[in-house]
């Protein structure tokens, strides 16, 4: 009987230790997740070398920014840098008939949309790389079919050269980051670019990777608290 009681006591004690350790590990993961980074770097080139400045640094005066742009979204509204003023936004590139990576990227961006649905200072801009095919009507149908919320997530089309210019020169979406749709068309990249309220690039993320998109959402929170 005493032997049995000792065995029971040992099992209870072991189970308690496991429970405590499991709880502590989960708590540590929670803390690490909520405090992944306290500040984000700035990027100015296609090699995405990080530059660390304070938000009020004088070096940022002439630092790379996304240039002025004007495109048309799924609601036939002109979307420009003025509409993004004071907002944090995620930029991506896609086309509606894409059978490959686009559905997976759309699924990941849907998580971002849902996470920040009630925050009007966070937006998403997805640029069509086949603007001649992706008319406003096509984008509207695509938005309706895939839960893209007007005003929060802008699917934009416009002048082909303007889209390619902003993609290559401003967001650094080039052949080193993606793959060509065809020899005559623009590359297709799975990367998501995070832009702050001053149009500085603050992060790049793999739009097909759950962990990377999780980091993106945490980094959006960081930028939202930046002063």
Automatic annotation (TrEMBL):
Binding residues annotated for Cu cation, in chain numbering: 98, 102, 188
GO molecular function: metal ion binding
Domain of life: Bacteria
Pfam family membership, one: SCO1-SenC
Keywords from the named record: Copper, Disulfide bond, Metal-binding
Keyword Metal-binding: yes
Disulfide-linked positions: 98-102
PANTHER family, sorted: ELECTRON TRANSPORT PROTIN SCO1/SENC FAMILY MEMBER, LINALOOL DEHYDRATASE_ISOMERASE DOMAIN-CONTAINING PROTEIN
Family, per entry: Belongs to the SCO1/2 family.
Protein name, per record: SenC protein
Species in which this protein is naturally found: Paraglaciecola polaris LMG 21857
